[in-house]
């Protein structure tokens, strides 16, 4: 059961939920059906280097080739505060048209965040934006809360969060993270896109400066193989037996605004100037890096092995429940076949006596925001009171020490304290 007897609501009754990801931020008032997704970057074009496009203003750019990005996150951590402030200002003032001081805020930070980065975020949100109250937590914690609300009879959840910079495997017991067992894999969407750029540039066409375009290619054509060796044979086959390879028409942002897959036997749109990529085994070899990082020289476990190893380090009574409640979230889990491959591989590695079940939301990248929405609707200290808020007045009185106690100490559980 979820205990709501220790609520600590601020004077404001409206909550803003912000999943502040390295690639995009999902933001919205708790009463909204779904959040607004905004690129978490400032963009400049090759023709207008002096003009900046903030967040969703990217949609106003007519020629999306050769974009130059200013990112607030580097290697998964928020370090460029000037850039992040500009993006937040744009979202708050121009996009949502909200006044932060009138709102409570639930915001995410990455696992293993540096204390200095966390403290800077708290100070900026309280002192510069003046939010009425603040809850700072992990994306996986909000995902775990969402799963707990969906399946209240399941005390344990294993959250696999594969995002832009990293993939994290985080076990939860009754809403608390077991950080001693949490694993990080240094593979995310950024690495996959960069590797695809390198392969295409080596084999066909120099696309090293086309991050935006190649990211779209990745999302349009890639899938997770269920049988790697069979798909490799198909990709090597002749045209009549090759069901893997396809032609992709690149956008030129003049006659072709958006890239698309050329139908089998289809013709070009009538010009010989169209650039066409022949995509073969890249369709599945790129997502395969999530399952075998050693393919690109990263000597770490793939996701299925990480899941099994993570569970093996938790208290043994939890193993059965964690195997039976694996939740995959994050933008890099959207490849077709991702959930099925994780289920198949974990089933092979897990003890035969344990049931294995893998859950995936229709929009896995939105699960943390949806969890934050449910948390706001249920009470800021939902999930057994582990996700707590600090009000503006409490911050002024207790400072960062008050925040550390509520945001960190109450969200984790040590193995020695498991009961």
From TrEMBL:
Principal subcellular localisation of the protein: cytoplasm
Cell compartments where the protein resides: Cytoplasm, Cytoskeleton; Nucleus
Keyword DNA-binding: no
Keywords recorded for this protein, A-Z: Cytoplasm, Cytoskeleton, Nucleus
Cross-referenced InterPro entries: Actin (IPR004000), ATPase_NBD (IPR043129)
Any one cellular-component term (Gene Ontology): cytoskeleton
Pfam families: Actin
Domain of life: Eukaryota
Keyword Cytoplasm: yes
Transmembrane segments: none
Family: Belongs to the actin family. ARP6 subfamily.
Protein name: Actin-related protein 6
Organism of origin: Amphimedon queenslandica (Sponge)
